Amino acid sequence: MVSAIGQTQSLSQTVTGRILSEALRHMPAMPRALFADAILAIPSREIAAYALPPATVKTTVAAASALQASGAPAAGPQPRDLALLAQDVYRDSPNPPSGYRAATPGDLGALGLNPQDLSSTQSAFKARVYVTGTGADTHYVVSFRGSQSASDWRSNFQQSVGLSPDNYRKALEIGQKIALYGNGNVTFTGHSLGGGLASAAAISGGIPATTFNASGLSANTVKTAESLRMAAGVDRAGAVDAYFVRGEILSLLQDGGDRVIGGVLGGLLGAAILDAPEAYGRRIGIDAVRPEGVKWYQDNPAARHGMEWVVSSL
């Protein structure tokens, strides 16, 4: 019998035609051959992992601004700062934007965390805490790193079929620990897989999150996160604003690719993907703006998934 993981090996080639037609509507100038090469270069596990339905609510940056102007002022760090912190966590050594610094062990203690909570010996999990402000105005940002290795892609795939790998276990624990310690000046953030981790932590800790081109959560992870939050005495999950660059590969798959992939795989695996929960949070679409130095022919959905595109588009 062919394993579930094995069934995904040729998936990227199987769904390329559908992805091409969807993405070319967004990028009429992109040469077809160049774009096809970009899609075929994406690991098949990544495509399967991101085969999730769209969230219920979509809005635009303009609409979000209107909501804030109507009486809901933004609290905590702004989206661009959070995007830069979601990008910085990929670096081996922190280089945060102006006004932020990497947390010390003492800062972590103020959140009920220790340095061991931010990494794992069992997976490629990594998070970093940043601090801005002083005294009563101190605010903490917990940034979760996205996919960088085969084990990370495996983590994504396991989420799509309802499993709970080590990456998500660690994120849930961070959310609950902060909730138990009672510090209210915290925001979670992350990109790609890191966005999924930030969403999970937001549920388990009742703490807000802002994510970028984020992966979704399985029903099992959501249920576990809610149980942890209730055990910590927190009634409500943290609000999640899920930003995505229009035309990027993950969102294209979320907005229809799930049905193609589910049909191709068939059986229990296809059903699991088709029945996967919506990507967590309020989706906010932003128009793609090419990063400085990027040529028009380098514009494709795979490239738009990266943090460079997120930062330049905000």
Quick recap of the structure?
The protein has 314 residues and is an alpha/beta fold.
Set out the fold topology.
Blueprint: H1 11-14, H2 16-24, H3 32-40, H4 44-49, E1 58-60, H5 61-69, H6 79-88, E2 101-102, H7 105-110, E3 127-132, E4 139-144, H8 150-160, H9 166-181, E5 186-191, H10 193-205, E6 209-212, H11 219-231, E7 240-245, H12 249-265, H13 267-274, E8 282-286, H14 301-304, H15 307-313
Parallel strand pairs: 1-8, 4-5, 5-6, 6-7, 7-8
Antiparallel strand pairs: 2-3, 3-4
What is the tally of helical segments? 15
Q: Which word captures the global form?
A: globular
Our Rg estimate from Cα atoms comes to 19 Å
Q: What topology, given as strand order, has the largest sheet?
A: 1-8-7-6-5-4-3-2
Level-1 CATH class name: Alpha Beta
Helix content: 40-55%
Amino-to-carboxy terminus distance: 47 Å
Q: Decide which structural class fits the backbone.
A: alpha/beta
Instruction: Return residue spans where pLDDT drops below 50 for at least 5 consecutive residues.
Output: 1-74, 149-164, 258-277
Oligomer state of the chains in this structure:
single chain
Second-tier CATH architecture: 3-Layer(aba) Sandwich
Q: How is the main sheet built?
A: 8 strands, mixed
Total domain count: 1
